[in-house]
Amino acid sequence: MAATTATALPRPSLLDRKIKHRPSKKGILAFLSALSAGVVYIIFHVAHDLNAASVTSYAPYMMLGMALLIALGFEFVNGFHDTANAVATVIYTHSLEPNIAVVWSGICNLAGVLFSSGTVAFAVITLLPV
């Protein structure tokens, strides 16, 4: 008769369990609500600003849209790198949960943009024709 040995399956680590945790429906709804409110705000204010301008050609608006899409794409990719660098230590040391660390990083990056002097943005604006 052969003896059988029972081996315990390795238990997933705490970090693995936290990463595999799905966001709640309330969190997804809050995110989508904030995103849609931001899009509506942008559309409203851009339309309000464009009412004062006379439209002779749509080419400048198309070029502006392309420039904004390129800039947003760059910022999106750059945000991945900033967040990875900012949260790597706190996630690795288990100081914060990964989801919370990424949210804090996003909040701090947004605060940095909102409270900065805007020197670079104003320098770029001076390069654009009226």
Relative strand content:
under 5%
Q: Helicity, in percent?
A: over 70%
Report how far apart the termini are.
91 Å
Rounded radius of gyration (Å): 23 Å
Q: Outline, from the CA principal axes?
A: elongated
Elements, N to C (H/E) = HHHHH
Residue runs with pLDDT of under 50 for 5 or more positions:
none
Q: Give me the secondary-structure category.
A: mainly alpha
Give structural attributes.
130 residues; elongated; mainly alpha
Please give the structural blueprint.
Elements: H1 14-19, H2 25-51, H3 59-92, H4 98-115, H5 119-127
Helix pairs in contact: 3-4
Task: Summarize the entry for a quick read.
With 130 residues, the chain is mainly α. It is 72% helix and 0% strand.
Description:
- The chain has about 130 residues and is mainly α.
- The protein has a domain at about 60-130.
- Helix content is about 70%, strand content about 0%.
- It has five helices and no strands.
- It has helices at about 15-20, 25-50, 60-90, 100-115, 120-125.
- α3 (about 60-90) packs across α4.
- It is elongated, with a radius of gyration of 23 Å.
- The mean pLDDT is about 80.
